[in-house]
Amino acid sequence: MPTVDINGHSMYYEVHQPGGNPTGSEGTPAIVMGGWGTFCHGGLGAVPWAVTQNHTTVVFDYRGIGESTDDLETTPSTQQYATDVAGLLDHLGWSDVHVVGMVGMGACIGQELAIARPDLVRSLLMTGTWAKADPIFTDQLEGFRRAHAEAGFATFQLLVASFSFTPEIYNEARDRLIGPDGAWKNLQGREVAHSRLVEACLTHDTVDRLDQITCPTMVVHAGQDVITRPEMTRVLEHGIPNAEGFEWPEIAHVIAGRDQRKRFDDLITDFFTRVERAPTT
């Protein structure tokens, strides 16, 4: 798969063609961004089926992760990452794409992209997001960063995984989540890159600019998320004009398990279909 020089770094990306029979949303590409990791290098299975089966989908490695390089002289920020994404979409010749931000930072990048380059964003769907870090969220992320730096990846993985899933899913899947091939495996040996990702998360602030997001937007409020709590995600719903909120009491920070993923697919399909059928101005 290719790399492209964008915004002072080499960016690795993958374009995947749809595997289903698109209806309603045919022809609209999508970009999917997660948290501190990547959906590349065999990770596409973690992307919602409703996206990959019905849309040409691009995924990429964040700076310093996978095969993307970083410029350590720059200050990491979600605006910087949004500029990276805009450069990638311009390189591909794409506009009016569905932007899906899941499990944290990707949704924050989506906010900055929708503000800076509304021509690129057809819709914005977000889970596990925030407009500005509050003290407890700041201390959680700083704790994860210190655990990685001071105690190593394995300790960090134990902490972040046990915080991110419902107890039922974690207990059932623990053997798959913990270990060198488990959750957040792309951060192994990448402590500096992880620290810079955390810095971008902690300095993210769109509170006073949310009204500049004009695309159709949906925000998922996860009732069992103890990291990006519902009171944080609701700020986005209330601040973005005409945004939709979806209350989902049963899920935690990561949507996981067959039933949760099926419901998420249905939610995405319904949202994308309504966006595509709505008249444009």
Give the SSE layout.
Blueprint: E1 3-6, E2 9-16, E3 30-33, H1 49-52, E4 57-60, H2 78-92, E5 97-101, H3 105-116, E6 121-126, H4 135-151, H5 153-164, H6 167-177, H7 191-203, E7 217-222, H8 230-239, E8 244-248, H9 258-277
Parallel strand pairs: 3-4, 3-5, 5-6, 6-7, 7-8
Antiparallel strand pairs: 1-2, 2-4
Helix pairs in contact: 2-3, 4-5, 4-7
The outline comes out as globular
- Helix percent reads 40-55%
N/C terminus separation: 36 Å
SSE series: EEEHEHEHEHHHHEHEH
The helix count comes to: 9
Low-confidence stretches: 21-25
Characterization of the model:
The chain has 281 residues and is α/β, with parallel strands linked by helices. The chain is 41% helix and 15% strand. The chain contains 9 helices and 8 strands. It has helices at residues 49-52, 78-92, 105-116, 135-151, 153-164, 167-177, 191-203, 230-239, 258-277, and strands at 3-6, 9-16, 30-33, 57-60, 97-101, 121-126, 217-222, 244-248. Strand 1 and strand 2 form a beta hairpin. Helix 2 (78-92) crosses helix 3 and helix 4 (135-151) runs antiparallel to helix 7 (191-203). The longest helix is centred in the last third of the chain and has 20 residues, at 258-277. It starts with a strand and ends with a helix.
